[in-house]
Amino acid sequence: MPIESGSCASARQAKQKRKSHSLSIRRTNSSEQERAGLQRDMLEGQDSKLPSSVRNTLLELFGQIEREFENLYIENLELRREIDTLNERLAAEGQTIDGAELSKGQLKTKASHSTSQLSQKLKTTYKASTSKIVSSFKTTTSRAICQLVKEYVGHRDGIWDVSVAKTQPVVLGTASADHTALLWSIETGKCLVKYVGHVGSVNSVKFHPAEQVALTASGDQTAHIWRYIVQLPTPQPTADCNQMSGEDEVEFSDKDEPDGDGDGSSDCPTVRAPLTSLKSHQGVVIAADWLVGGKQAVTASWDRTANLYDVETSELVHSLTGHDQELTHCCTHPTQRLVVTSSRDTTFRLWDFRDPSIHSVNVFQGHTDTVTSAVFTVGDNVVSGSDERTVKVWDLKNMRSPIATIRTDSAVNREINVCVGQRIIALPHDNRQVRLFDMSGVRLARLPRSNRQGHRRMVCCSAWSEDHPICNLFTCGFDRQAIGWNINIPALLQEK
């Protein structure tokens, strides 16, 4: 009888082991359905608050994990047997190989490759499956806590800024690229006053802290101070816009934007000339604000300067220079003579006018792209937002590094606004979203946006009105409308 050579015997053993490996995988696959059914039966008997569809999805994902690791384990056993066979052959020939050392190298290489593939596959599968679950949970929660109350439609172009009056009667102000500023009844959504004194885009609107006077900044290189007199109409029953929020979120096109021509803003009282015009800038005036007390105003311009004016005389008090590129925003402290300016040069600057004889400036370089706005909050904090898709919270007592950083998926527009009493930050985004965070950077909610409500284009600005009984947050965007929201703050903080 012929005798098999060592190589033939080795080949036959390897073939038998591959066949055994194949059979073991078939047995594994054939038992998957039985095992999945058994696990589902076990889960059904357990008390769980998860919907059955969510539980089944999670079960399927963990089943995939188990199968992948089982296959990896079988492959490693096969490799170990091949190493043992090779050691036996070499030992018969008078040679030895450290099987442990060999197995370490080959097993490590194979396991590393398999684990990498497994990790990537699991990440992709898990992310795709669970993102829908998480989104559905957050959308339901947001709609219950954040409700759209009123839409303010009447501008013929995008709205850059929104603001709420600090005195009675409390009205809403909007500044638009259509060269006008409009004042609205918050309750009825009716336009009360139209200001048409500018010959360029109106970029911001701010209300005097004690009088019925407004301050607007414009692309015509001026800022105007003008007086208004309003009589609030009788409130009408408010439609429950939340009933329209059941539809899934969809994408919008420009043709879906509201048509300002059909609104009654054209027949409301018109203010045509300002009380005072501030004219010292050589470029677009992008923002303006009142200093505490309302006797001085500050403006920010694309000519890289900010100017401080005396309101009564219209005289320029200080020209604030130092930014290397166009300014994007300015904001004043609610109780102190402090001003913060932001710029495309990636910095924001803090100007101190508490000492009348001198003014100091501090430069902060915490961002790597355009700083779209920087605003004061309660106490000694500043919140800054940037085109680099971050928002940072700073302590004025130690501005070397932020105390919190919020990372977003879209650029943050001006104007960031902070609910002073509850310390909640409202962030308007390029991608039409408005998100709410606390001062430590924890995300609280996202304002709902469906096919019948919410902004259809870039959201430019947000403004809180903490004491208003109907709407306590307002947003505006380049879809030519402003929106009033009711945020259930206690429920929002409880969800946190």
Describe this structure in words.
The chain has a domain of 312 residues: Methylamine Dehydrogenase, Chain H (7 Propeller). Helix 1 runs antiparallel to helix 3 and helix 2 packs across helix 3. The chain is α+β, with helices and mostly antiparallel strands. The chain contains five helices and 29 strands. It starts with 5 loop residues before the first helix and ends with a helix. A five-stranded mixed sheet has the order 2-3-4-5-9, with no helix packed on it. A four-stranded antiparallel sheet has the order 1-29-28-27. Strands 6-7-8-10 form a four-stranded antiparallel sheet, with no helix packed on it. It comes from Aptenodytes forsteri (Emperor penguin). This is WD repeat-containing protein 37. It is found in: Cytoplasm; Nucleus. Keywords: Coiled coil, Cytoplasm, Nucleus, Repeat, WD repeat. It holds the Pfam family WD40.
What features would you highlight for this structure?
496 residues; alpha+beta; Methylamine Dehydrogenase, Chain H; 27% helix; elongated; WD40_repeat_dom_sf; nucleus; repeat; WD repeat
Inertia-based shape = elongated
**Gyration radius, in Å:** 32 Å
Helix/strand-derived category reads: alpha+beta
Number of strands: 29
According to CATH, what is the class of the domain at 145-229 and 267-493? Answer: Mainly Beta
CATH architecture of the domain at 145-229 and 267-493: 7 Propeller
InterPro entries: WD40/YVTN_repeat-like_dom_sf (IPR015943), WD40_PAC1 (IPR020472), WD40_repeat_dom_sf (IPR036322), WD40_rpt (IPR001680)
WD repeats: 152-194, 195-226, 278-319, 320-361, 364-404
Coiled coil: 69-96
Region (Disordered): 1-36, 242-273
